[in-house]
Design goal:
Structural class: alpha+beta
Largest sheet: 3 strands, antiparallel
Number of strands: 3
Shape: extended
Number of helices: 1
Radius of gyration: 17 Å
Helix content: 25-40%
């Protein structure tokens, strides 16, 4: 398989995975200060303060996690 074909295949898989994940994140319920977010058969506890005001059970949410390109040194100036 050519490099270009491999890259296209990889991109297609990433796009499918992104669409699949984005479509399945749902607020399952609230417990105390946390929203329990369902992704497939797993539940993740997310602080309610990170959700938009008015978010309720059954709402679909999108969560984006990124990595800094140049991490800052913590505690050093």
């Amino acid at each position: 398989m050519r490099i270009k074909e491999c890259m296209n295949l990889y991109s297609s898989r990433d796009m499918m995975r992104e669409r699949m994940i984005n479509g399945m994140l749902t607020i399952d319920r609230f417990e105390g200060e946390y929203a329990l977010i369902r992704l497939n058969k797993r539940i993740f506890h997310i602080p309610k303060v990170l959700l938009p005001k008015g978010a309720k059970r059954g709402d679909r949410v999108r969560i984006e996690i990124t990595v800094e390109e140049e991490p800052q040194e913590s505690g050093k100036e």
